[in-house]
Amino acid sequence: MQTFRIVLHPEIEGGYTVTVPSLSGCITWGKDVQEARAMAKEAIELYLEDLQASGEPIPDDSQSLELSLTVA
């Protein structure tokens, strides 16, 4: 089992675009947070299958630390 950080970006027209920072180009969308998470899981699984098939290393986000800063 591996851990990947996902970022949900709310869209003006509704729904969320989801990015996976450690998997370049791994992007998906969902109409709400629940669907966005499910779609992200599927996108990550497919991305990892492609990495494995091509013999590329699989990144691991389990030791990542994320912080938010507010700047005035």
From TrEMBL:
- The answer on whether this UniProt entry bears the keyword Mitochondrion reads no
List the Gene3D superfamilies hit by this protein, alphabetically: 3.30.160.250
- For the keyword tRNA-binding, the answer is no
Ranges of residues in domain HicB-like antitoxin of toxin-antitoxin system: 4-66
The record's annotation in InterPro entries points to: HicB-like, TA_system_antitoxin, TTHA1013/TTHA0281-like
> What are the entry keywords?
Plasmid
Would you indicate the residue range of the signal peptide?
Answer: none
What name does this protein carry? Uncharacterized protein family UPF0150
Organism of origin: Marivirga tractuosa (strain ATCC 23168 / DSM 4126 / NBRC 15989 / NCIMB 1408 / VKM B-1430 / H-43) (Microscilla tractuosa)
